[in-house]
Amino acid sequence: MGKNYVDIEDDRGETLRYRKHVNGRGLIANGAKVHASAVVEAGAYIEPGVQIAAGAHVGRGVWIENDVVIGPKAEIAPHAHIGAGARVGAGAKIGIRTYVGENALVAGGSLIGDDQTIAAGERVATDRRGLRLAA
């Protein structure tokens, strides 16, 4: 039986330890909190300080940077990138290869399509069809 963690050296030469999440085998850094009912697929990286709520789903190849909060039942599609300090509300859906910038906010229930970019600090709310609502 293999070990349940991986050590990875960062750009500064420091070693970070990631454990494999029970649901999906994605890599969770020490200091991140992922609810047991959340799914983090293999190939996803969750950095320190991240909080992922119950029922959330993080696809393969997703990178979630430091101090991000993912709300309950949010869905992050494969190969998306969530910047440091961003917030993704309950039930929001982030599309494939979409980038959510640092400290951005995606409101609960929003639908962000594939290959989109949410700028750093931007606040986004959409209806169920993905049409942006007035701020």
UniProtKB/TrEMBL annotation:
GO cellular component: membrane
Positions of transmembrane segments: none
GO biological process, one term: lipid A biosynthetic process
Gene Ontology MF annotations: N-acyltransferase activity
Enzyme class per UniProt: transferase
Coiled coil: none
The enzyme's E.C. designation: 2.3.1.203
Keywords: Acyltransferase, Lipid A biosynthesis, Lipid biosynthesis, Lipid metabolism, Transferase
Domain of life, per lineage: Bacteria
Record-linked SUPFAM superfamilies: Trimeric LpxA-like enzymes (SSF51161)
Name of the featured protein: Transferase
